[in-house]
Amino acid sequence: IDFLTGASINNKRKEYAIFSDGYRAESFRLFVRSAEVKKFSGFTMKALVDNGFRLGITMGYLYNDVITDLQDDPARADKVMPVSSGLINFAKLLEGDIDGFLEDPVVGLNSIRRQDLVDQIEMLPYEINTGDVHLMFSKASVDEKVIILFNQALAKIRADGRHQQLMEKYTH
Hints:
Radius of gyration: 18 Å
Structural class: alpha/beta
Helix content: 25-40%
Shape: globular
Number of strands: 7
Mean pLDDT: 92
């Protein structure tokens, strides 16, 4: 793999990857079945899990300390359920295997539209902000000049407004 989108920077990844400038702020939102929006609104994630909420998360995603603590707590191991791909959480939610899942709002909302699940799954206002996301380039296969060119192009579309137009297209 030469590059991935939507990557967060951490020290382990820096060992094998070079990152572009950030291209959007990353956050995760909680998605639940539409019929249960009111039932799960207004609670912290810890309170939800402590009251039996089964949370779907994606392996390899970097959330925040609250989610990491819930995930690492043996007493809650049966309530925080990792999957290999975020798309699996949509099926698990609809099948009743989980009560909700965390997903990037851009990915989540686009998946809901593409799968025609608008009437079945909704996004709650619960939000985890984790910083900017970047393109992650392989040190083994990508020349640093490519990353410099990418960053220059990103700066150009930010300056002329095209970046904002693209972001609005996929977030609204």
